[in-house]
Design a protein that fits this description.
Elements: H1 2-8, E1 15-19, E2 23-27, E3 29-35, E4 39-44, E5 47-62, E6 67-80, H2 88-93
Antiparallel strand pairs: 1-2, 2-6, 3-4, 4-5, 5-6
Length: about 90
């Protein structure tokens, strides 16, 4: 279904639910790029989400549903803007 949504230009819904700064649920997840106990990087339908904190754990990842659940102390949530590379080397390798 995800490939059908992409071909039609329809994005899965994206939301964040943070409870008591201890439990985070994210929908619209495409991929967990990296994680450790201090930082989790998640590619969502709305961009790269960076979750920072301490004692972070991935409790549940449902790729088909596009849902991620984390626990631990969340101190910062932010999106990294996509960088558009320009110049000779970026054109050569893209």
């Amino acid at each position: 279904m995800a490939s059908d949504e992409k071909t039609r230009g329809v994005q899965a819904p994206h939301s964040l639910t943070l409870s008591e700064r201890q439990r985070l649920t994210v929908t619209g997840v495409e991929e967990v790029v990296s994680f450790d106990e201090d930082t989790v990087a998640v590619r969502t339908v709305k961009g790269l989400l960076l979750v920072r904190g301490s004692g972070l754990k991935v409790d549940k990842l449902e790729k088909n549903a596009g849902e991620l659940s984390l626990s631990g102390l969340v101190t910062d949530l932010g999106y990294e803007e996509a960088r558009t590379a320009s110049g000779f080397w970026s054109r050569l390798f893209h």
